[in-house]
Amino acid sequence: MSNVVIAPMLVALVTAILTLVTRARPRLQRTVSLFGGGGYVVAVGVLTWRVFSGPVLTYQLSGWTAPYGITLVADQLAAFMLAMSAVVTIAALAFSTDYIEAFGQQIVYHPLFHLMVVGVTGAFLTGDIFNLFVWFEVMLMPSYVLVVFYSGPDHTRAALQYTVLNLIGSAVMLLAIGGIYATTGTLNMADLAVRLSNPEAFGITVGPVVGLAALLFAVFALKAGIVPFHFWVPSAYEAAPAPVSAMLAGVTKKVGVYAIIRLLFTVFGAAQLDLGPFGDGSMLLFFGPILLVMAIASAFLGGFGAVGQSNLDRLLAYSSIAQVGFIVLPLAIVATIPLTDGGTVAVLGGEFTVPTGAGTDGLRVLGIVAALLYALNHAVAKSLLFLVSGTINAAVGTIETDELGGLTRSRPYLSGAFLIGGLSLVGIPPLMGFFGKLTVFDTAATAMATNGTVGEIAAVTALGGAILTIAYVSKAWNDAFWGTESMAVVRATAQPLALLSIVVVLALVLVVLGIGLDPVYEGAHGAASAALDRGAYIDAVGPSYAEVQS
Amino acid sequence: MASELPALLDTAVFAALVLASGLTLLAGYRVIVGPTTPDRVVALDTIGTNVVAIAVLYALQTGEGLFVTVSLVLAIIGFVSTIAVARFVTEGDIIE
Amino acid sequence: MTENEPTVIARTVVRIVVPIILVTAITLLLQGHNAPGGGFIGGVLTAVAFALIYIIYGLDYFETEILGRTALPRALPGEPVEDETQQRPGVTKEFSEVLAIGLAIAAGGGIAAIALGYPFLSQAVAFVEGIPLFHEIEVASALVFDLGVYFVVVGGLLTIVAVVGAE
After folding, report:
1. Would residue C113 count as lying in a domain?
2. TM spans, by residue (chain B) (predicted)?
């Protein structure tokens, strides 16, 4: 029990309240907001350091023990995701203090931004699926307002679509959670994993959970913007202010990805049952093929969509659909292939056994490492690109590629930042993106040895997706940055130095992450192992069954 | 605590529940068919009143005081919504 | 006020009903920690009571008659305004302050538990005896959190009612 687990959430919550209280004094509010953002980064940093140098940390809210109370669990996976979101958060926050007009900032921007961070943090840390729903809502409600921030007709239409879709998603999620509680009698994730792997001991049937898990999975796919649940992405990202788009693409999307990893691999994967045509074994086998199809569709639909866009934000939005396809592709590969050496581990002092998540061949770990590295690359690179697009908007006043051109001459640093972000998406060494792509290909190649078809399909998809990435990044580069200077660029005199410096720093982060990959890779490896180490997760939470057995 | 009720009252409560539920369905038909807005409003108001009645009857049947609170809150909100809709129908604006 | 003033019946009924609603709301708030009720529904009912005043007496009545201020003339949405305070009813600002205070109370109640060495959001209960009329009163610290929720709901809903009602 350590307060360090809850610190990031509390820092963000207190900052949200303080920025609400100091609304009458905009300068003070902005300072409080920035200090709060800095405090958040420090809190996340301490938590990450503690988790990576020690055991899994848990926190029982108001002292009720699991599985009855609300548990927060900080394992290496959660810490990795938190650290990723902290980088994007502080950059987006610093960017918005200069980018969003003063009146808008004063009214609601800062409190909402920090509330969104509270939701994100809670979603990463929670160890309870109903609580996950609550944090999703806390994260989404501010994002509804932030998407409609400019409140023009187009923004309102986009925000309405975004809001309605996510509300439907939330309703479905609640339904699925209710069903899971009715079927298994628990909402605690660790407890759920124990019960699903020992159905006889608890007198439950596992069959219905497959369908309910599929409902949950659809909701997470909606939040992550995976085809066929991607249609809200382009208009919402285009409508939202640039730093908010950076947050949506860099952070809230990753919450969906995190939920898929956590629930499918750590929790539902523990269930062993006969899935008919999908095979006999872990519940993951059911989701593998589905995830594979969705990943392929995302990579291609997003890629083709991006090539045809003439608005920079829309192009980036379609690109982020394609990139999420890349993130879930390795997950799909390893979910499809059954574990050959699936032994069991004893948990809770030997009282129960659960199937191990990771095999000895290391393929599953590799797949999740690939997904995490790619997610990190996407989080930093895509938010960098959205911030570049915002800086262009602030400097030139338009982000239509037809009206831009020749930015390299007048704005070399801005163009350089875009180039770094774009090349990282494409995957050019020594940038972060290269290693992300490399591990994705590595997973596909390793999988070919075990299951040829899946590995080949995945490799072809990754290759096709990579070519499409090159196509749309070079298109954006050619249209907006190279060539002769357009009228709009020539006339623009604004020099948003503060915005530019943030963008350049973020670009440097991307380079540093690539060059100094070792610790990042170690972190991703630790996070992937934690996601599959059900034994450690369950023992850390330690649900007590005293009442159940008496 | 249903067993503490006299048999006659128990039957009466049950009959009233069936009656109120049936009425709610009939009012639901009027809500869907219309044809005019006031028709729908009156039907919705009837449904609200019926739900309050069902809550009270259910409280009688189960002996749970909780449902009396529920009916109280429902009645208050139903009252205000009726007034708001009436204002809207007569003047086209709720708050001025 | 337009040419269609609400009838005397409506005005009189509202005068009687509003206090009843408020009493119900506060009852639900106070019993919320261990019986049906709580901050949320108490807040909703309080907001409903204020909404009733708004519907029958109009937006300005609350400011001029109850708070005893002069209501500022309001600009219509889209009209250019010189002064930001004119854009919305003046009382909206107070409503959103109520929201902020509520949020602070709710979070502060949780953090206080940490300061005392218990996990976040820990609650306690004490029974105070020998109070005239009541004999024994149950003082639960969960009430603090409920009170915070109550203020958040009241502030949030009334801001919405006042802003939307003004348009």
Report:
1. no
2. 12-29, 41-60, 66-89
